[in-house]
Amino acid sequence: MQQLDLQVIERALSWARDGEAVWLCTVLATYGSAPRAPGALLAVCGEGRHVGSLSGGCVEEDFLERLQCGEFDAPVTTLRYGGGSEDGGVDAPHVSLPCGGILDVLVERLPATAETLVHLEVFHATLLGQRPLLRCVDLDDGRRHFLSDDGTGPRVVHDPQRRTVQLRIGPAARLIIAGLSPVSEACARFAQSLGFEVILCDPRDALHRDIALDGIELQRVLPSQFIASGACHAATAVVALTHDPRIDDLAMIEAVRTPAFYIGVMGSARTSQARAERLRRSGGLSDADIARLHMPIGLDLGSKAPAEIALAVMADVLRVQRGKARDEL
């Protein structure tokens, strides 16, 4: 989750500013069951203090023990837990993951230099900002740089031929929910558990009185007004879940003017066709604009209950965020 990434990088930056070397560990790949996904981070300073995680604890314990024994002095090291090493990585066959899976880990030793500080500051600013980047690491000499990115696709891209790794970083994923409804509430809770920053917009005061969603921002304004205020960045998904065209249609008209990676609206196939015609005629949307809209929203899971619909919605949002085509599922 990006919020945990932010905690890791903030602590790493603090250690580097205090003149301490930092070991930044990133999950590169998983095979079989694994407790953390590719891109998960762990930062450790020379005294053994650490933040973040790579597993349920067994990998961290082994890494910290080996670090205290003087290992990982190279600028970059690759590790495999739960199986043999490859690509010149260091072997750790004595640690078996309880889930039975295999975990590949990148270990970067970041000395307390001006170059490290700049790199971590850019990393930190990217997590707080609106522009995603690719963090590129050379697996032979540890040199690293940033490239522009569109924010979608797998979090880790490993090129064994060029001996490089590209790590996708960006602002915390944001979900803007247009309109209050039972589906909206379920979707907000799902998204929050997935690490999204969730903002629920609805101008109807009467509906807000009965809502109780801890940790979720409630905006008592028209969703279209909130979206038009500049609330969307490239890591934003916008979903309209009310069946009320006065809310949903206006939200779609504004959302297509933003860089949001996912824009979807609830409704049947027939309703969606009618909405498309209405948005062309009254909203001035082009065919390209209409093509950006996921309608009917969500994966076709045969969902009926609000929680089932919310599950289908968030599954589709994650599919697009990870760069997966429907026929790849």
Textual characterization of the structure:
A six-stranded mixed beta sheet has the order 3-2-1-6-4-5. A six-stranded parallel beta sheet has the order 13-12-11-14-15-16, with helices on both faces. With 329 residues, it is α/β, with parallel strands linked by helices. The protein folds into two domains: 2-169, no CATH class; 174-328, 3-Layer(aba) Sandwich (Rossmann fold). The chain has helices at residues 2-17, 58-68, 114-128, 182-193, 205-208, 223-231, 245-255, 269-281, 287-292, 306-321, and strands spanning 22-31, 41-45, 50-52, 76-81, 90-92, 102-110, 133-138, 144-148, 156-159, 164-169, 174-178, 197-201, 217-219, 236-240, 262-265, 293-294. α1 runs antiparallel to α3, α4 packs across α10 and α6 packs parallel to α7 (245-255). The longest helix has 16 residues, at 2-17.
Write the layout of secondary structure elements.
Elements: H1 2-17, E1 22-31, E2 41-45, E3 50-52, H2 58-68, E4 76-81, E5 90-92, E6 102-110, H3 114-128, E7 133-138, E8 144-148, E9 156-159, E10 164-169, E11 174-178, H4 182-193, E12 197-201, H5 205-208, E13 217-219, H6 223-231, E14 236-240, H7 245-255, E15 262-265, H8 269-281, H9 287-292, E16 293-294, H10 306-321
Parallel strand pairs: 4-5, 11-12, 11-14, 12-13, 14-15, 15-16
Antiparallel strand pairs: 1-2, 1-6, 2-3, 4-6, 7-8, 7-10, 9-10
Helix pairs in contact: 1-3, 4-10, 6-7
Helix content: 25-40%
Question: How would you spell out the order of helices and strands?
Answer: HEEEHEEEHEEEEEHEHEHEHEHHEH
The largest beta-sheet arranges its strands as 3-2-1-6-4-5
The N- to C-terminal Cα distance equals 22 Å
Number of strands: 16
- Number of helix segments? 10
Give the C-alpha Rg.
Answer: 22 Å
What are the segments in which pLDDT stays under 50 over at least 5 consecutive residues? 84-93
Task: Round the mean pLDDT to the nearest integer and report it.
Answer: 89
Structural class: alpha/beta
Whole-number total of structural domains: 2
